[in-house]
């Protein structure tokens, strides 16, 4: 980094601390009481701030929860995270999908993630925001890893990378949302192998 | 059919007519007012029955809506529907997925299907019922079609048919739930081709 930044003022630091306290409180509270019973009042009380502080920054509890997810996805150093690239695509994808399975099975994330997905399902504006701020950047990372494999001749030249991403990550998310079967490391491996090899016999 | 059935009594016929009127009313009403504002009172008024008639048969509005979906999936002759099997697996799957795309884009189904999916996401008991009564039988039909192709040597011998079903149908449902991109006939075709051929180069 060559640009010099002015050190943040005390007021900026205090605002940032409040913002983080509010987002952490929202994330904790939705786990405990569920999304239906989550309220701005409850978040304010848990974060030790006034209700009006929250309303100054966010229009709704959905917006607060969304930013809580954004905070979780931020890297501590402000940099971009990337998917592992050891050169072995199959092993890298299995590692990533196994980590996703672990996250989806983590009780701390269960209720907040279901709430976020429900809000997206019913709210086109939030869906657009989600696509732009959370899913979009994540999708670019996934496509970046696939593109590197494609350049190495490990993936078909004419592959539509968006369809490929849907095919690798879609089944896990679906199974989790619909509670349609066990989400195990073995399932993650099987999805990766089946997506790479395809359903037809390989000759 | 060789079994003889007793003709239904007038009371049975009346009950069946009320049941169908209630389910049709619930399905219509959720399109108009959304799931959050759907109420047993509203369904009763629309169907022209008393509230207590509905409560006698269903514990909640979610249960009514679920049965409305079951009614939609029933065949008029009480038989099992099957997926098309012309011998050309790729063409058959494309036809089925294109029909699914059309259904998911139909404004009449949009709100009821989003409501059902939301309820399943948050309610493990309803998810179990859904798996048993709706998704399970549908999944068997899909696996039946794939099994027939597998026997014909068109699919890999060691293919896990559950993973295959997730890979073909998962991306569409996901894209629809997350509003994550256009749901077009071209997308349906691309999913089928990519799933069958796999992501790797085919030599």
UniProtKB/TrEMBL annotation, chains A, B:
An MF annotation (GO) of this entry: transcription cis-regulatory region binding
Classification via Pfam families: TetR_C_11, TetR_N
Domain of life: Bacteria
InterPro entries: Homeodomain-like_sf (IPR009057), HTH-type_TetR-like_transc_reg (IPR050109), HTH_TetR (IPR001647), Tet_transcr_reg_TetR-rel_C_sf (IPR036271), TetR_C (IPR011075)
Coiled-coil portions: none
DNA-binding region(s) from the entry: 39-58
Assigned keywords, A-Z: DNA-binding, Transcription, Transcription regulation
Residue ranges constituting the HTH tetR-type domain according to the UniProt record: 16-76
Record's protein name: TetR/AcrR family transcriptional regulator
Lineage of source species: Bacteria, Bacillati, Actinomycetota, Actinomycetes, Streptosporangiales
């Amino acid at each position: 980094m060559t640009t010099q930044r002015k050190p943040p003022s005390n007021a900026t630091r205090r605002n940032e601390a409040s913002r983080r306290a509010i987002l952490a409180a929202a994330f904790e509270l939705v786990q405990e009481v569920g999304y239906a019973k989550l309220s701005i009042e409850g978040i304010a009380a848990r974060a030790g701030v006034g209700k009006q502080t929250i309303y100054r920054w966010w229009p709704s509890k959905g917006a607060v929860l969304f930013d809580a997810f954004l905070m979780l996805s931020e890297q501590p150093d402000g940099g971009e995270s990337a998917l592992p690239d050891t050169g072995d695509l199959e092993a890298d994808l299995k590692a990533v999908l196994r980590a996703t399975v672990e996250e989806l099975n983590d009780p701390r994330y269960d209720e907040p993630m279901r709430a976020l997905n429900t809000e997206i399902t019913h709210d086109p504006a939030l869906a657009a925001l989600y696509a732009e701020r959370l899913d979009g950047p994540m999708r670019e990372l996934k496509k970046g890893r696939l593109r590197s494999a494609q350049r190495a001749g490990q993936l078909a030249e004419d592959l539509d990378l968006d369809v490929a991403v849907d095919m690798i990550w879609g089944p896990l998310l679906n199974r989790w949302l619909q509670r349609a079967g066990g989400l195990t490391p073995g399932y993650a491996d099987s999805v990766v192998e089946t997506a790479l090899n395809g359903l037809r016999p390989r000759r």
